[in-house]
Amino acid sequence: MATYDGVFNALGLREWCDGGQSDGPMSMDALLAQTGGGSEKTFWDFPFPSLDALNEACGKIPQSRDLTVGLEQGFLAIRDALQVVLDPVTQPLSWLLRNALHVMTDTPWWIVIPILLLVCWAVTRSLKLVGFVAIVIGLLAFIDHYEYAMQTLAIIFVCAFICVLIGVPIGIGMSRSDKAQRVIIPILDMLQTLPPFVYLIPLIFLFSVTEPKLYGIAIILYAIVPVVRLTDLGIRLVDKDVIEAADAFGMTSHQKLFGVQIPLALPNIMAGVNQTIMMSLAMVVIASLVSAPGLGVLVLRGIRNLELGVGLVAGFGIVLLAILLDRVTKASLARIDASQSSR
Amino acid sequence: MKDTQQKNVKVSIKHLYKIFGEDPQSVLPRVKEGLGKTELLEQTNHVLGLNDINVDIHEGEMTVIMGLSGSGKSTLIRHLNRLIEPTDGEVLVDGENILDWNESKLRKLRRETMSMVFQKFALLPHRTVLENAGMAMATRGQSRKDFESEANKWLDRVGLDGYGNQYPHQLSGGMQQRVGIARALTSNSPIMLMDEAFSALDPLIRTDMQDLLLELQAELHKTVIFITHDLDEALKLADHLVILKDGAVVQQGEPQQILLEPSDPYIEDFVSDINRARVLRARSVMEEGAPSGEVSGEVDVNDNLESVIAKAGGDLDRSFAVTRKGERVGTLDMATIMRALVPREASRDTARA
């Protein structure tokens, strides 16, 4: 005897409920109730009219777990169609990641390290920072973490590059249309707050675990948010007087965008790039769960096998990489700021 | 006296209305029937920006539009190049209604016919002074090589030679506005719109800039539309003065005439604080006709009363012959000057000073 029997009887739905009685799996409560020999339910135990409670009274009402099962089946049903579209579109990502990993790890260290230092010099013009980078990489190499660190860097470079490539245009689009902004901001909020593990699950269904794009997409989805947000914000914050002057002198919207808005928004966009790089670094560790190589693998090994030392050293390496990337991008940001700002 | 009749009307504003709010068209008929600004706001929640503006701007003249903040002067000047779209009315440039123009024609107008100088300078902070000055030409698609000599010429002319490679934030406010003026001049447009161009500068520099503008104008004869909230500035610069209040024109005409015959208590109040001796000129107060009796000297029609008083050495029984291009056209005695120095109807409010 379930609590809500009376409701269905009163509504005259008893017949419909019992029609085609499916002997679906019983809920735990129902089993207990049966074994308990229908012990008297008191007012205190009055259940919330949830799907499971209603199902007890009427077999036609689905159980809550049908919801999750249904979602899964729905996803499986459209999986093939999704794969047909997404596979070719995302194939370049796999290709890029594979090549970047290949280049970064298979080129001898005495070529890679000087190139990295040169790049660092080119963007920051600060000998101190170049020295710092040399020490960090040297330290990691000295404790034989060089290859892992390079794998992590390669993944971050590729993912951050793609984030900028996609994110900046989206941000520009948002800044030009309030409607687009209203649509995109909730999506960004969701991407930012959804636990990263959650979107790993459907990705595993969609792509084979041997494909690098699996973790590539997870990282990009997670890390693209700040660059989109800050591009939008940066362009919206450009001094209205300057925009008016650009209009008054008859600039086309194209001239205005590339001649005024983007250059003036650049400090903000660069701040977004910095955040994007930091977030890819955070995600690259989690992505090691789905076969992303790099320092994250060592962290994971430390957790799985309870190898305290391995996990700690790898974690410390990640911190060093994070500081390195942050300092280098911030220094180049400061250089842009100094060369143009009136603020 | 300047012959405004002989000059072409370059820009003509006809029955211009601007109403801000949800649905300006729906309340326009009521405004045309004479609903005032405060009533409109109370009854319909719309703000009346401009109310039936009619102004003719003559070629080669400096037209000054003066009003206190909120009087709609900045809104008005932005209608001339359609940075703001009017609710109703016409703006004719060389006889064509620019409100009918499509985007590309309007862009051509902004690039070639009108240039603008802004209160807050609005220079591009990431470009050098030279690139800022050449902005109009660069926008037309000319390369740096093409605009460099032109931009340098005007930078020299406004007193900024040698600053071409600096960035705007390295310059003082006055110098930044010089760049703003050089930018407008480099575009070689016949019409210059100046939106409170000198209001953000301190008084001494402001006077310098006014002198610079007058000097340039004497040489270039552009059609200048100048916005200001400062009556002294307006009287100094204007060939034609338009006074705005609450979005409507209260009085317009030759500044001397407005000063001598204010048509409205609002304007009387305004002009009562002015140093009349410095603003009024011999031509506006003299008696026409060659002098009959003895005169103690000659003054030019454009001399201001201050200089005439100085010439008389404060002596009250002198009188002067007024000459235009060497010919005697009028008489001016000290008594007339003294009368002119007192505002009309030595007004009830003068006591407060």
Cα-atom radius of gyration of chain B: 23 Å
Oligomer category: heterodimer
Number of strands of chain A: 0
Radius of gyration of chain A: 28 Å
Number of strands of chain B: 14
Question: Can you tell me the number of structural domains of chain B?
Answer: 2
Share of residues in strands of chain B: 15-25%
Average pLDDT of chain A: 87
- In CATH, the architecture of the largest domain in chain A is Orthogonal Bundle
> Based on helices, strands and strand pairing, what is the structural class of chain B?
alpha/beta
What's the CATH class label of the largest domain in chain B?
Answer: Alpha Beta
Please identify, by name, the CATH architecture of the largest domain in chain B: 3-Layer(aba) Sandwich
DSSP helix fraction of chain B: 25-40%
CATH class of the largest domain in chain A: Mainly Alpha
What is CATH's topology name of the largest domain in chain B?
Rossmann fold
Keywords:
heterodimer; A: 343 residues; mainly alpha; MetI-like fold; B: 353 residues; alpha/beta; Rossmann fold; CBS domain Like; 2 domains; 6-stranded mixed sheet; 4-stranded antiparallel sheet; 16 helices
